[in-house]
Design brief:
Oligomer: single chain
Structural class: alpha+beta
Helix content: 10-25%
Number of domains: 1
Strand order of the largest sheet: 3-6-7-8
Largest sheet: 4 strands, antiparallel
């Protein structure tokens, strides 16, 4: 089996010991909505910029996603999927699926990290607060039938 090119790598497979930490190409990624032509994918423009880096023992992949790129983020039954896509001649895509407990741990660490530093400037703080409030409101929704999350 050949090593995938950086353009083909979109994630890391950690589903089984047989493929632990192997590069995952767009043809093998396990997220169901990664299929071409999936109409449920809702992409949004990236207002700022992002960089993704994957460091394997013998390979390093890095890619930037700027204002010409787009993203999607949505909840699934077992976690959340975040996907970044850069179109054009240097096209690339990066996806990460985080299970709920890992996402909770990441959010807790981020909260502690923010609390331990100087306050974030107002330009960045307001959008973060609005997003955090919307996130909390969505999490607090319950089903009228069961009293559990929908």
């Amino acid at each position: 089996m050949r090593c995938p090119s950086p353009e083909e790598v979109i994630g890391i497979c950690d589903l089984s010991p047989a493929c632990h930490y192997m590069p995952v190409t767009r043809y093998r990624f396990y997220a169901h909505n990664q299929r071409k032509g999936d109409s449920s994918v809702s992409m949004h423009p990236i207002a700022d910029k992002d960089e993704v880096a994957i460091d394997f023992p013998e390979k390093f992949y890095s890619g930037g996603f700027g204002r010409d790129s787009s993203f999607e983020a949505h909840a699934e039954d077992e976690g959340v999927l975040i996907r970044l896509v850069r179109p054009g001649p240097e096209k690339r895509a990066a996806s990460i699926h985080l299970h709920h407990f890992l996402l909770a741990s990441i959010l807790t660490d981020l909260a502690q990290s923010i609390a331990d530093r100087n306050p974030i400037d107002i330009v960045h703080r307001e959008p973060l607060l609005n997003a955090a409030r919307a996130f909390v409101e969505a999490l607090e929704q319950t089903s009228p039938d069961t009293g559990q999350g929908t």
